[in-house]
Inverse folding.
């Protein structure tokens, strides 16, 4: 209920609706990247970098454009650290944001997400 307490959402129903939407999206694909833009046309440099890293690791991933879903973007900012996109999920679990993904890529661990 952090999101409701910090005043981002007007009602508890908003929180539940957005949580359900996030749950549905993150289990649709084995690996999903919540980003600005999409895998073919990233809007920001961080999202572009992460798409590049995932491709270099031969990962099959889907993307969700948070610019088209502003309420979901606000929800994710309230629920996750870091507070800005991109956010990577694998197997329905939150992996991390840009810095975590870069560290995993540099260490060779990013490719292990698909194993």
């Amino acid at each position: 209920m952090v999101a409701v307490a910090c005043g981002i959402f007007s009602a508890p129903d908003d929180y539940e609706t957005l949580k359900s939407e996030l749950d549905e999206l993150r289990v649709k694909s084995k690996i999903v990247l919540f980003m600005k833009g999409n895998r073919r046309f990233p809007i920001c440099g961080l999202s572009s970098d992460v798409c590049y890293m995932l491709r270099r690791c031969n990962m099959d991933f889907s993307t969700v454009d948070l610019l088209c879903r502003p309420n979901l973007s606000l929800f994710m900012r309230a629920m996750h650290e870091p507070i800005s996109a991109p956010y990577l999920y694998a197997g329905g679990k939150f992996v991390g944001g840009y810095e975590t993904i870069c560290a995993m890529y540099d260490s060779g661990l990013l490719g292990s997400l698909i194993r």
Observations:
- The domain at 2-114 is CATH 3.40.30.10 (Glutaredoxin).
- The CA atoms of residues 57 and 111 lie 5 Å apart.
- The chain has one domain: 2-114.
